[in-house]
Amino acid sequence: MLENNESAPTLVPRFLKIICYLTIFGSIYMIFTSVSAISSPETVTQAMTKSMESWQDIFQKSMQSDPQAEQKFEEILTDLSNANTSSNMRDNSFFSMISNLLTLIGAWMMLRLRKKGFHFYLLGNIIAVVAPLLVFGSDNFLGFSYAIFAGMTGGLFTVLYALKIKYMQ
Asked: What is each CA distance from 55 to 48, 52, 60, 62, 92, in whole angstroms?
């Protein structure tokens, strides 16, 4: 039985708990990935170069009949190649680490039903969208694609959290 000055523990809605844990696990994974990329940006650059070479092999055969598409694809690959530097990968990984640290803190706070956690989460997502555009350039395909991916996933989860903000204090 509870005394008058004690209140019953507030239950976290199941859906909020699920999205918080998804965010926590995803953020922790991305923090470790970012730390690894910061310590060895050359590895990330080499992996991206290998990916671009395999894309070129796959798409070049299918685009031989369309010279305009082939030229546009070559421009995109050149753009990616120019942005694929160790310095850019290290800088992007640093911002990714900061962004994911903020989303981790935000999700943890929202799991404790703290509305301020939503603000941390939102700030982390804003950094995740803006940072690649700053690091790689807003006219670069790599920066644009990273920003779009972060905006779509972060935006979806932001909406899901916003739907549950009424349970937070």
From this structure: 10, 5, 8, 11, 22
